[in-house]
Amino acid sequence: MDNDVTESGHGLVAGPDEAEARDRGDEQEWDQHAYTLMDDAEADRIRDLRRRRLEPMHIAGGTVGFGDGDTAGTINHYYGGTPQSKPVDGPVPQEELDVLRDFYVQTDDHAELLDKLHVKGVAVLRGTPGSGRYTTALLAAQESKDADVVVLDPEAGLKRLVNEEGFQPGHGHVVEGDGMPWAATLRAQLLNRLRTQETYRRSPLVIIVDDQVAVDGLSGFVVEHRFPYDLRLRVLERHMTVLLPEQPEACRKLLDHEIVREELGGRTSMTAIAFLAEQLARGERDGEDTDQIVQGLRGRLRARAEDLLGRPDRPGESGAQRSGLSLWSHAFLLACVVLDGMPLSRVSRESHRLAELLHGVRSPSSVPEMPLFEESLKDWLNRSDVQFTDRDGNPTAARHPECRVRFRQSGLGEAVLEVLWHEHSGARRPLLEWLDGLVTRGDEDTRVAAAQTVGLLATFDWAYVLEELLVPWATDRSEEYARRRSFAAAWALERAIGDPVLVPRVQSLLREWCRRPGFSGCAEAAYGTRIGAAFPVEALDSLEEIARRARGRSVRIAVQEIYAAGSRSKVVERLADWSERSSYWLIRDAAMCLERLSRFPGPLAIIGFLVEQDAEPREHLLRLTRNVLFSHQQGVRQRGWNTLRLWVERAGDEPGLVDALAEFITELPSPGHGGQGDGLRERFLFYLRLWQHQGADAAEKIVLRVTERWSA
Question: Which of 484, 464, 460 is CA-nearest to residue 474?
Answer without folding.
Answer: 484
